[in-house]
Amino acid sequence: MEWKWSDFGCLPEAARRIRETVFMQEQGFCEEFDELDACSWHVLLCQDGEALGTARLFSEQGTDNMHIGRVAVLKPARGGGSGSVLLQACCEKAVQLGAKKAVLGAQCRAIPFYEKNGFQPFGDIYDEEGCPHQMMEKKL
Predict the structure, then answer these.
(1) H/E segment holding residue 106
(2) Among 42, 64, 106, 113, which one has the highest count of C-beta atoms within 10 angstroms of its own C-beta?
(3) CA 136 to CA 67: how far, in whole Å?
(4) 3-state SS, residue 23
(5) What are the boundaries of each domain within the chain?
(6) Which residues contact 2 (CB under 8 A, 6 or more apart)?
(7) Does this model's pTM top 0.85?
(8) Strand 65-73 vs strand 101-107: parallel, antiparallel, or unpaired?
(9) CA 134 – CA 69 distance, rounded (Å)
(10) Which pLDDT tens digit goes with each residue over 43-68?
(11) What does the pLDDT read at residue 9?
């Protein structure tokens, strides 16, 4: 597997399709794309030229944190380490950009996956379009 970062603020079409498939079609979210896409780095995970997953990374203003978001892997690629590779890519990029910590808002059902990748929960559970989420962090 290999990953490639897009230019700052440029959401690749393959990443858009993956997010539409995973978050809108599979999970029923309506508000997938927002103003943060324009101020994010976007990573695309590929294998043999085929796009498998994506995530975005943006700075939390006024902090040394980088926020990882919209982590999505297509169904056929799940369970094979693709999500962990995406998180690794995001953490490496965050360090390159000077971050001391990576944070993310995890769907509660995915907390064990993020814990396996070194993230720890903090704060209260919150709702996003009817889906419970938990903030998580990892020191870099």
Answers:
(1) strand 101-107
(2) 42
(3) 10
(4) helix
(5) 2-139
(6) 45, 46, 47
(7) yes
(8) parallel
(9) 13
(10) 999 999 999 999 999 998 888 999 99
(11) 87
Q: Taking the alpha carbons of 79, 81, 83, 84 in that order, is the dihedral positive or negative?
A: positive
One digit per residue, the tens of pLDDT, for the chain of length 140 reads: 999 999 888 999 999 999 999 999 999 999 899 999 999 999 999 999 999 999 999 998 888 999 999 999 999 999 999 999 999 999 999 999 999 999 999 999 999 999 999 999 999 999 999 999 999 999 99
The sign of the dihedral angle between the CA atoms of 54, 51, 109, 23 is positive
Question: In 3D, which of 76, 31, 86, 30 has the Cα closest to residue 56?
Answer: 86
Place of tokens 């085929």: 50
Angle at 121 between CA 68 and CA 2, to 5 degrees: 35
Q: Are strands 101-107 and 131-139 parallel, antiparallel or unpaired?
A: antiparallel
Sheet containing 101-107, strands listed edge to edge, beginning at the edge strand earlier in sequence = 2-5, 41-47, 50-59, 65-73, 101-107, 131-139, 120-128
What is the C-alpha to C-alpha distance for residues 66 and 7, in angstroms, rounded to an integer? 17
* Residue in the structure block whose two tokens are 């944190």: 65
Backbone Cα Rg of the chain: 14
